[in-house]
From TrEMBL:
<comment type="pathway">
    <text>Amino-acid biosynthesis; L-phenylalanine biosynthesis; phenylpyruvate from prephenate: step 1/1.</text>
</comment>
<keyword id="KW-0456">Lyase</keyword>
<protein>
    <recommendedName>
        <fullName>Prephenate dehydratase</fullName>
        <ecNumber>4.2.1.51</ecNumber>
    </recommendedName>
</protein>
<dbReference type="Pfam" id="PF01842">
    <property type="entry name" value="ACT"/>
</dbReference>
<keyword id="KW-0057">Aromatic amino acid biosynthesis</keyword>
<dbReference type="InterPro" id="IPR018528">
    <property type="entry name" value="Preph_deHydtase_CS"/>
</dbReference>
<dbReference type="InterPro" id="IPR045865">
    <property type="entry name" value="ACT-like_dom_sf"/>
</dbReference>
<feature type="domain" description="Prephenate dehydratase">
    <location>
        <begin position="8"/>
        <end position="186"/>
    </location>
</feature>
<dbReference type="Pfam" id="PF00800">
    <property type="entry name" value="PDT"/>
</dbReference>
<dbReference type="GO" id="GO:0004664">
    <property type="term" value="F:prephenate dehydratase activity"/>
</dbReference>
<feature type="domain" description="ACT">
    <location>
        <begin position="200"/>
        <end position="277"/>
    </location>
</feature>
<keyword id="KW-0584">Phenylalanine biosynthesis</keyword>
<dbReference type="InterPro" id="IPR001086">
    <property type="entry name" value="Preph_deHydtase"/>
</dbReference>
<keyword id="KW-0028">Amino-acid biosynthesis</keyword>
<dbReference type="InterPro" id="IPR002912">
    <property type="entry name" value="ACT_dom"/>
</dbReference>
<dbReference type="InterPro" id="IPR008242">
    <property type="entry name" value="Chor_mutase/pphenate_deHydtase"/>
</dbReference>
Amino acid sequence: MPQTPPTRFAYLGPEGTFAEAALSSVVAPGEGVRQPAASVPAALAAVRAGESDAALVPLENSVEGPVPATMDGLSDGAPLVITREVFLTVAFVLAVRPGTRLADVRGVVSHPHALAQTARTLAGLLPGVPALPASSTAGAARAVAEGEHDAAVCAPIAAERYGLVPLADDVADHPGAVTRFVLVAPPGALPAPTGNDKTSLVAVVGDRTGALLDLLAEFAVRGISLTRIESRPTRERLGVYSFSLDCEGHVADARVGEALAALHRVCDDVRFLGSYPRDDGRTNRPVPDVAADAAFADAGAWLDRLRAGQV
Ligand SMILES: O=C(O)C(=O)C[C@]1(C(=O)O)C=C[C@@H](O)C=C1
């Protein structure tokens, strides 16, 4: 019997990133093939090119907010859908080559998101020392190991992986920050509804009065709670925005399906980004009786009877 090839997972590499830790929390060692990518766009491109089956990428952080490369990478290009979400508490160390002292550090390198989450602590430890961007926290650790920079902000595991030692532990300005990662794949069969799901989408609204209110109303009137919304530039011109949002429920739920169909009518463009099990440890709000599948089915049957002349 032909064997199914192992799933190829692209992730923001190199080894030792938070993205890899997030992937390890959902894919057992030895299961699938892990393919480190140089950047979020590269991980998404690998999936679009068929070189990877799925990509694990950071979407947002509880302190720093959205990860623009992922937000924009999912809005543009060939469609990809989220098949699961993964939450990871992130903790950072200031890592150096053995023997380096604080006074020797002339630059600190890390992923911009990690630098932003540690800016205050770093300013206290290393006043006036420039912060330099890297493609990932582990990429920064590797660059320090290779002698390109003096210090990196990275995960303790990345420091270890690249032979670095911590000059300071827990350098986050807000301890306990959580990053939400998503596993994305080419469109295909959707994860089955679990009763506690989220749906993600991007909608471009027209440049007219009340356009955002119209979008929001489609959710509100159907008893659907939003869990995230943010605006992103469409890059067309100032004044035209897309809204990236997550709502409770699965597109298979009547209320969510109908809301999406309504957005298709009222928005300039809607991109469905998937329905997947909610995994933030929270439970969707109770659905009002009037927004339950049974109520939609009943209303549909009533309308069918009217149309058939059975008044
Ligand atoms: O560089 C990494 O290790 C990543 O996984 C990326 C990333 C991010 O993009 O936010 C993930 C978690 C941390 O918040 C910092 C960096």
